Predict the 3D structure of the following.
Amino acid sequence: MPTDTELFQRMQAGQSAALGLLYDRYASLVYRLALRILGNPQEAEDLTQEIFLILWRGNNYNPERGSLGGFLTTLTRSRAIDKLRSRGSNLKFIQRWSQMMAAETSPPTPFELASVAQRSQYIRQALSTLPEKQQQVLEMAYYDGLSQSEIAAKLNIPLGTIKTWSRQGLLNLRKNLQNFIE
């Protein structure tokens, strides 16, 4: 059985099978550490892939400075902490942005309300001219907020059929609203 150093040298020589062997040896270690720090299985999986991609691409590891397991552990810990910091700054940005948007949003004017009501009426009229099945699918999607999969399950109709009705309905709706769009 080849040592980590031998596998690392083979990997640097372009032998992808060596990376596979190193992955088999250390993926669970990297994943468990990432999961412990991040607390999210999907992020831990992504980070595990990222760590081995770094190992493959880079020349960061020096076998003379320590074990590969130690290197991967340190790299995983460092990258996971970076992700936590990034997550925190992204959350702060979203919070600031939503506060700013709430402060800038003014109530609609009577003219805007009338315009919205008129457009809504045009759309309802155009919807009423569609075949019943297309109309039903579009109303469930846009007024009830259901996905095509949810509509298919609710109506007990194949998903492909729902997609077809939805697409045909949207094309027909576009034709019916052509004068309004122009």
Remarks:
- The radius of gyration is 28 Å.
- The chain has two domains: 1-102, 107-182.
- The domain at 107-182 is CATH 1.10.10.10 (Arc Repressor Mutant, subunit A).
- The chain has a mean pLDDT of 84.
